[in-house]
Structure formats: C-alpha cells, structure tokens
Write a structure and sequence with these properties.
It is a single chain. The chain has 139 residues and is mainly alpha-helical. It folds into two domains: 1-30; 33-137. The chain has helices at 3-30, 36-46, 53-80, 93-119, 122-131. The termini are far apart.
Length: 139
C-alpha cells in the first residue's frame, strides 16, 4: 500500500470513528421531546386555558423529567461502549439504574398526560391526538 493510499485510508477510518463519537451528541441535540420550544409549540397548538394550567404544569414537569431520564440512559450506554468517561469494568449497574429511572419517569408521564388529556375539551383532545407523539404521551 502506498503512503498516499494508506494516509487516505487512515483519514477515512478516523473520520468514521469521529462520526461515531459525535453522533450520539447530535442525536440527543435533535430530540425535541420535552424541549422548551416543543412545549411552547404544543401549548400554543392546544390553546391551553387558565383553568387547565395545573394539569398542564404537572404534565410538562413529568415530560421534562422523562426527557432527562432518556438522556441519562443514552449517556450510560455511551459510557459502557467506551465513551470519554467509560464506566469502570463491565458492571452495567449504572445503566440498569438509569433504565429503571426512565421507566418510572415514563409511567409518571403517562399518568400526568392522562390527567391533562382529561382536562382538555373535545376539540383540544383532537388536536392532542394529531399533534403529540407516543413519547410525549408516555406510551
């Protein structure tokens, strides 16, 4: 293999490796689940009324908690794969703990969403059905 071919090959391998280490960060950044922008968008589309403020606030808090739990699981997965701050040894207890926390947050989100959905009028429920993703409903 000539030095030019070897150099090009090494650059391609390095670029591929770099994309794998950056990709999870990009994926996390692209997730709109529970982002402030998405929350504002949904609130505007639903036309949340003052009388619905309590259930809405509870729902948003649960959504933000779930969003963070999803990110924590992804972070632990990256660490187990040998990320910048790899977990020592092969013990995946951190990942299991974070997965458990994510499942609990998802269940809480579903409960809060159902309470919020029940406070919506039929027109708002139709908009919610068409607008919200399964993840935003705790499903």
């Amino acid at each position: 293999m000539t030095s030019a071919i070897r150099r090009r090959y090494l650059l391609q391998v390095a670029a591929g490796f770099l994309s794998l280490t950056v990709l999870p960060t990009i994926v996390l950044a692209q997730s709109e689940l529970g982002s402030p922008e998405r929350i504002r968008q949904v609130k505007a589309e639903l036309g949340v009324k003052d009388t619905q403020a309590g259930p809405w606030s509870d729902y948003v808090a649960a959504l933000e908690t779930y969003r963070q739990a999803v990110r924590d699981v992804r972070e632990a997965e990256i660490e187990l794969m040998g990320g910048a701050h790899a977990i020592e040894g092969s013990d995946d207890a951190v990942l299991k703990d974070r997965q458990t926390a994510r499942l609990l947050a998802k269940a809480a989100l579903k409960t809060r969403y159902e309470a919020f959905y029940g406070a919506l009028d039929p027109d708002q429920q139709q908009i919610a059905d068409a607008t919200l993703t399964a993840g935003e409903c705790g499903r």
